[in-house]
Amino acid sequence: MANEKIILTGDRPTGRLHIGHYVGSLRRRVELQNSGEFDKIFIMIADAQALTDNFDNPEKVRQNIIEVALDYISAGIDPAKSNILIQSQIPELTELTFFYSNLVTVSRLQRNPTVKNEIQMRNFETSIPVGFFTYPISQAADITAFKATTVPVGVDQLPMIEQTKEIVQRFNYIYSPDKPVLVDCEALIPENESCQRLPGIDGQAKMSKSLGNCIYLSDSADEVKDKIMKKMYTDPLHIQVSDPGHLEGNVVFTYLDAFCKDEHFERYLPEYANLDELKGHYTRGGLGDVKVKKFLNNIMQETLDPIRTRRHELEKDIPGIYEILRQGTNAAREVAANTLSEVKAAMRINYFDDAELIRAQSEKYEGIKD
Q1: Which residues pair with 152 in a beta bridge?
Q2: What is the helix (H) or strand (E) element at residue 92, kind and residue range?
Q3: Pairwise CA distance, residues 202 & 74, whole Å
Q4: How many CB atoms lie within 10 A of CB 89?
Q5: Hey, what domains does the chain have and what are their CATH numbers?
Q6: Which of 321, 340, 320 is nearest to 332 (CA)?
Q7: Longest Cα pair distance anywhere in the chain, in angstroms?
Q8: Residues 311, 70: contact at Cβ < 8 Å?
């Protein structure tokens, strides 16, 4: 249908999801899913993309598909409202990627800031796997296959959306200028700046599974408390309680910016009205890190407890989770197959369905015989 509002989003299954995923995208996905504003929502477990830099360890990807699915549903993704799909099980995406690759130059991929950063981070400078290098094209195939109009992403992914928009415009210009086949999309980034990239508990710029600085959605209450109270980076200059504290680079306050609401003060720290008052006291001096960490721990436990409880229930029926994935993938594949059919028709390579081509060729060779 024309003018449908469609979301595509997803994650690479390289590990359990952490609270960076939650505030950066997952929490917002649940809100969008329940808003009633969108006609379709596709949430992709991007295992094919994960294999571009885990090609030598496919078991890691295979084992984490169920972890991501459990995290999705326990965090509030409703399979009745959102299609959860496995990328590699939709071969039409690979075919679209191949066709789009003719529309993008090597130099354009090399200029993509996200690709450059990811290559540097993985030390791929001297030996870049082709699949990894071209994953912006694969991502464009994912987005366009489902005719997504809205793609929730972090700020670091904006160059990828720009690349997709270029591919859409170029394809439509070359193959279907009168009646565009591919749909343009817009990025949706987190409104809360602190949610755009939550730092690790050690103060590193990025929360990362490989750095071991994550709080996972599936962590136990004791694990969460231990990570906050014993391992979380604060202000190294705030040695005595009386010392003025600094907020910049202080992970505790960054997390409070992302998770804290005024009602949390009523429940856990009633001597302050809001976060601004707490920050004011901390920067003046006279407020210890332990008290602030205890406050954060209470908020995190309140946030994560229903997710943990739901996950424990879901873990009792793993075959049921795979059935959800199968149904979501099958439904998504029907949509992708329809888009691929339209793409082939626009490119005029739908030979067996092109009755006019067959008729014209037949007449041509009949004329030769005469």
Answers
A1: 188
A2: helix 91-100
A3: 27
A4: 17
A5: 6-197+318-359 (3.40.50.620), 221-314 (1.10.240.10)
A6: 340
A7: 103
A8: yes
53 vs 40: CA distance, rounded Å: 30
Q: Which two tokens stand for residue 292?
A: 């602030």
Instruction: Kindly give, in sequence order, each residue whose CB lies less than 8 Å from that of residue 357, ignoring residues fewer than 6 positions away.
Output: 348, 351
| Separation of alpha carbons 115 and 122, rounded Å | 11
| Contact yes or no for 14/193 (Cβ under 8 A) | no
Whose tokens are 């030996």? That residue is 127
Whole-angstrom distance, CA of residue 217 vs CA of residue 65: 15
Q: Bridge-partner residues for 305, per DSSP?
A: none
For CA atoms 232, 236, 242, 246, give the dihedral sign. negative
From first to last of the 370 residues of the chain, give the pLDDT tens digit: 558 999 999 999 999 999 989 988 899 999 999 999 999 999 999 999 999 889 999 999 999 999 999 999 999 999 999 999 999 999 999 999 999 999 999 889 888 887 777 777 777 767 888 888 888 999 999 999 999 999 988 777 888 899 999 999 999 999 999 999 999 999 988 776 656 678 999 987 778 877 889 999 999 999 999 999 999 999 998 989 999 999 998 999 999 999 999 999 999 999 999 999 999 999 999 999 999 999 999 999 999 999 999 999 999 999 999 999 999 999 999 999 999 999 999 999 999 999 999 999 998 888 666 5
